[in-house]
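Forgive a beginner's question, but would it be possible to get any protein sequence you like and the tokens describing how it folds?
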Amino acid sequence: MTSTEATAAGSNSSGIWNLPNILTMLRIVLVPFFVWFLVADAPGLRSESGPWRWAAVAAFAVAIYTDKLDGDIARSRGLVTDFGKIADPIADKLLIGSALVMLSVLNELPWWITVVILVREWGITALRFFVIRYGVIPASRGGKLKTVVQTAAIFLYLLPLSAVAPWLVWAALAVMLVGVGITVWTGVEYVIEAMKVRAQGLRRRAEERPGQERREQEPGEQEQRKPETQEG
């Protein structure tokens, strides 16, 4: 093993406990606290818009900030690891998913919106794992825009200011509907891209198969020639 390979291997193994990954793990740890704050604010599943609701807002804001911060640090300092590639999207889905479910449980967000978004998110994740044998589906700009719009809508829903600003509820719903539209649109894009990646992978396999068959036949042909040479 060369020094370069050793360095790369070390960064992937011991680098699990670097700052970006710790921030990602912090985001995962914040999810149950965020949910508990919302439940504590709504003893009868009706929000009281009290201190616990503001605590939920703060937990969500900190978690979202760590999402941006860990990515910036990982890219700028070359601390991108396999663990981070897997844990970061899982943390995002846990945070967004728990927020959507809790808002629906509290009757603040229609359940159909939560179902559409969650089916899309986990469906695309399953699709990525299915297609990975043929290739990797590249991330799209629409996916990042979807996350930003969803986050903004959830933040507006969480703010306990509807009593003094009734328009905030309608603003949150409008932003969320835009997010749902982008979510469905990008979901269709990913399905089309997955079909292309699968088709390209099958085409590559078909092109490589004849060469592999020839390489497998050549040793057998050489063994058949050897006895003839010895007899001569």
Residues 109-209 form one domain. The chain has seven helices and no strands. Confidence is low (pLDDT under 50) at residues 1-14.
